[in-house]
Write a structure and sequence with these properties.
Layout: E1 4-10, E2 27-28, E3 31-32, H1 33-42, E4 47-54, E5 73-76, H2 83-93, E6 101-104, H3 114-124, E7 131-136, E8 141-144, E9 150-154, E10 160-169, H4 170-179, H5 186-191, E11 198-201, H6 215-225
Parallel strand pairs: 1-4, 1-6, 4-5, 7-11
Antiparallel strand pairs: 2-3, 6-10, 7-10, 8-9
The protein binds cytidine-5'-triphosphate and magnesium ion (MG).
Length: 226
């Protein structure tokens, strides 16, 4: 029986958020941001264990009480210079079998919901490759001319916006990240192997909290769910 694990890279500095503290630790709806996603994974019956990848010099994790999640939570102090390096280091150190599934999820997507996780697991559990949550692009897309003038309109048909979690088998994901460490998501690295990850419809509320202006929306979504 293959098992399912979560891996949450949380070794970033949150430079675009521009606060004194890395954004994953910023308080959001009464909890440090990362806690929301960790609760979603730790409370999911199909998930064996949730691994968090922290920066080696992380000074914030230990200031919070994680004991309510401790049954399934495991901490790895092996963050890298890039998100991909943090994921790679975490995969190398986590205790999972080669063919076990790993769901990689940004600590900065606190609004991940149970329905989306269930959809991902259901659609991928018998899949050869694995895949990711994603949203069909809704807006009209413009390419600029290098300045701030439109050079052309890009057809949006067939375009999807990638989210996380992205779910692949451990060994294949390690192999992909070794081959293509510069891709900005796991699916991109798996594509570099010549494989076609499956697109599983996500939820717009599972957006990545990146700029200060994103905080209020995330807070509203999380409070409504309480
Ligand atoms: N991440 C990581 N290791 C890095 C860089 C990022 O584990 N070297 C993690 C972040 O902590 C976050 C996720 O990858 O959970 C998505 O990254 P992003 O939203 O870009 O977060 P930051 O890199 O922290 O933010 P910024 O790019 O604004 O500095
Ligand atoms: Mg970043």
């Amino acid at each position: 029986m293959t098992k399912l694990y979560a891996l949450v890279p949380a070794a970033g500095t949150g430079s675009r958020m521009g606060e004194g503290i890395p954004k994953q630790y910023r308080m959001l709806a009464g909890k440090p941001m990362i806690r929301h996603a960790l609760e979603a994974f730790c409370s999911h019956p199909a998930i064996e264990r949730a691994y968090v990848v922290l920066a080696e010099d992380d000074a914030h994790w230990g200031t919070f009480d994680w004991s309510p999640l401790s049954e399934k939570l495991a901490v790895l102090h092996c963050g890298g210079q890039t998100r991909a390096a943090s994921v790679y280091n975490g995969l190398e150190r986590m205790g999972a079998g080669d063919d076990d599934w790993v769901m990689v999820h940004d600590a900065a997507r606190p609004c991940i919901d149970r329905n989306s996780l269930d959809r991902l697991v259901t659609e991928l559990s018998d899949d050869e490759v694995g895949g990711l949550l994603a949203l069909p692009v809704a807006d009209t897309l413009k390419m600029d001319d290098g300045g701030r003038r439109v050079s052309r309109t890009v057809p949006r048909e067939g375009l999807w916006q990638a989210q996380t979690p992205q779910m692949f088998r451990k060994k294949r994901l390690l192999e992909a990240l070794r081959l293509a460490p510069d891709r900005t998501d796991e699916a991109g690295a798996v594509e570099a192997l010549g494989l076609c990850p499956k697109l599983v419809p996500g939820d717009p509320r599972n957006f990545k909290v990146t700029y200060p202006g994103d905080i209020a929306l995330a807070e509203t979504i999380l409070r409504e769910r309480e």
